[in-house]
Amino acid sequence: MTTFDVTLADIEAARSRIAGRVRRTPAFESPEVSARLGRRTALKMEALQLAGSFKVRGVFNKVLTLSDAERRRGLVTVSGGNHAIAVARVAGTLGLDALVLMPKVTPRFNVDLTVKYGARVELCEDAAEAFAKAEAYQSEGRLFVHPYDDPAIIAGHGTLGLEFLEDVPDLTHVFVSIGGGGFMAGAAAALKAKRPSLTVYGVETVGAPTMTEALKAGEPVTIRATSVARTLGAPFATRRTMAAAGLFLKEIVLVQDQPVIADLSWLLQTEKLLCEPAAACVLTAAEKVAPSLPDDSVIGLVLCGSNLSLGDLDAWRKQAV
């Protein structure tokens, strides 16, 4: 199996590099979530990050490691979700040319945000066609920014783990959602490097079990996600992110869409924080696991993003009734 190639030093360098470019999002204990889980629980409010998710951490770190000549080539990426929005935001901030290849099923909300922040969008039949086109653009000279299989992207995401432990030093169990695995890899690498005794759980929805299927098969497996948690619907994990899962995770908890939508609504009502399903799912997972944890555990939930339309939320809630 591939060895994992992102170190604590890489993550700390990323933190210095992106300082002042991203928000240091708040983390605090929640009496309501603590009462619900029966254990002290802290929330990392990454849903308040610029461009609505953790993704700007990795993209800023990646782009700021490039030479001026590389940046002038223009960027190309594949994403229908938060990575697209983050690449657009970073490119717009730094004055770079960015092209985002999106599957046709991408929600209009995400397309519009990506264009608004400053990228050009090209719609493709599906993710497979988008990745193929990205390779073609790369061969023509553009610089491909992979959504999750890139050490610089992963190191940038790891900066969240450093912040969480600084704000809540006695964390014992942390829940992080998994799409392609880049975010989990960075955050878990930072948490485990700083606190080896800390336990990290990955979270996926039943309709987007990318990492679960890859680990079961012992190699990346292409999946077609059906979950409403669209930003978890990466078509495949990679050997790098699989290696991180093997090193850092105690297990991956699978949850159903319906309770995730209920928890999304509950968090909005209770914590006044809008979370997308890919964020709310960590609460759903923690509720399954918490009863088995020691009474003095301190649970950390990473609420990783907030990019969803209220129209989608209305539709999901009607289906759940």
Give an account of the 3D structure.
The structure is a single chain. This protein is an alpha/beta fold. The protein folds into 2 domains: 8-54 and 150-320, Rossmann fold, CATH 3.40.50.1100; 56-144, 3-Layer(aba) Sandwich (Rossmann fold). Helix content is 49%, strand content 15%. It contains 14 helices and 10 strands. The strands form 2 sheets. A 6-stranded mixed beta sheet has the order 1-2-10-7-8-9, sandwiched between helices. The chain has a 4-stranded parallel beta sheet with strand order 5-4-3-6, with helices on both faces. Helix 5 links the parallel strand 3 and strand 4 (98-103). The longest helix has 17 residues, at 151-167. The radius of gyration is 18 Å and the shape is globular. The N and C termini lie far apart (45 Å). 55% of the residues are buried. The model has no long low-confidence stretch (mean pLDDT 94). It comes from Microvirga arsenatis. This is Pyridoxal-phosphate dependent enzyme.
